[in-house]
Amino acid sequence: MKSIVTALAAVLTLTVTATDPVGAQEGADRNRSAAPSARDISGFWELSIDGSNVPAAVLTPGITKAVLDEQAKKDAHAIRWCNILGLQHAMGSPRPIDIRQGARMIVIATEVNAATRYLYLDRRTHINREEFDPTTNGDSIARWEGNVLVVDTVGFDGNKGMTAIPGGGFRTADSHLVERYRLLNNGSILAVTFTWEDPKVFRTPHTYEFRYHRLPQSYEPRPPLACDPFDQERTRFLTTPPQIPR
Amino acid sequence: MRRSRRAFLLFAAALGIVVSLTMWQAPTESVAQRSASTAARPDLEGGWVRIDPEGSGSFGGLTSKFPRAVLTPAAAAIPVGRDPDDVDPDAKPHGPGEPYIVSQGRCGGPGGAGGIEPNSAALFIVQADDEVLLTREGPGGRHIYMDGRAHPDLTRWTPIPLGHSVGRYEEGELVVDTMGLTPGAVTAGGRRTPETRLTERYRLTPDGKKLTITYTWNDPKLYQKPHTYSLEFDRLPEGSYAFEGWCDSSDPLQRQSIVPPAQLQ
């Protein structure tokens, strides 16, 4: 008798649960949002003043002051003419970056004048160099190694955008970048280490780390600031030494 | 025997309760199932390129057969200024392949993500739980908030070229509602102000290879009836990747365009 009552109670419980799929789904959704996945870096992320650990790069003997000055001129030209500036500017953005992770790709959109980054999760090899037109962001393929997202990028254009690399040196067509993304502090911090290799520029691999703070879900980005290459006053400001107002 | 008869009656009574409860909940379950199916999330992730289903042969021709907006008299009186960046000094017809100046070559304009309607650059979509992000082959992105938030109070909102967009899944489609746009022109003779409401419906074909975005503009001050048209897209093949749109205002060629060559008949 007791066993019959127990069995009926179990049937009743199962019936009530099975007839409330929405409630069950809501419960599952709540659980998902309560525990951030270590393998989902979606969110708005902001780099704060204490979020950078950048040692000085060890450059090859060929990277003389003259070479660095020439490269700095190219970067200044890119800024002056409102060119898209590239990966380093995107990841070092003074405004928050928006990272959204899908099943086949991760997209990084910024609020600055840098092209959107695409990190391909469904590709294991880079696009053939003969096919790929070098860009300021390069070709990025990504994979998860445990809870670390490893992003491998080649295919940079050494003559477009802002090429300077934090800590010294600059990107060239031969640069190879490996980024490692991981969540810290229960998902409130996104740590990214950047390791640049380029036999013509760096004597040893150059590694630095940025840590981004997760912004509230309610954050809403604003469009990039307008950049007017034909604004004469802006041009004067960028191309002549500052004057002390009198 | 008496004991087993009592057990049988108890079992029958309990079974009756279960059946009643199930029947009582049946309508709820059916609604819930319907709700789940209507909210089904289409797989829009990836790259899409706008196509020319009419074979019009030119970019301007893509919209030439769209139904024209039926404007209110007040809206028709609003002058639509030309994009100040568009310049065609001689304003004469140009032969196929003849290069001519079409713009000031101005890079770095505000807005990002290329405007509401995709042009010839590919459109990329990534769907996260809280946000659908639409991006192009340049800076910026269009953010569709999926967390149920409302539009902001427009009296406290600075209009922007992409407006403020919230979305939901409905009947297997992504439905996006946008307000807060900068004033200006809309495809096929339309107008918009920050108060104008745009509804977009993103609908996939059953095989997932084609996408139709239907745009419906609503604003009783501007339109006598909702202004609707659709754009069509092909999914980029597997292994495709985003290009990077380059713009250099210091390059004289940045200002030129080329008229498409004559189409083979």
Could you explain how this protein is built, in words?
The complex is a heterodimer of chains A (246) and B (265). Chain A has 246 residues and is α+β, with helices and mostly antiparallel strands. Chain A contains five helices and nine strands. Chain A has one domain: Beta Barrel (Lipocalin). In chain A, a hairpin with a 2-residue loop joins strand 5 and strand 6 (148-154). With 265 residues, chain B is an alpha+beta fold. Chain B has two helices and 13 strands. In chain B, the strands form three sheets. A nine-stranded mixed β-barrel of chain B has the order 1-3-4-5-6-7-10-11-12. A two-stranded antiparallel ribbon of chain B has the order 2-13.
Beta-strand portion of chain B reads 25-35%
Distance between the termini of chain A: 100 Å
Topology of chain A as a string of helices (H) and strands (E): HHEHHEEEEEEEEH
Proportion of residues in extended strands of chain A = 25-35%
Largest sheet of chain B: 9 strands, mixed, barrel
CATH architecture of chain A: Beta Barrel
Task: Using brief descriptors, characterize the structure shown.
heterodimer; A: 246 residues; alpha+beta; Lipocalin; 9-stranded mixed β-barrel; 5 helices; globular; disordered N terminus; B: 265 residues; two-stranded antiparallel ribbon; 2 helices; 13 strands
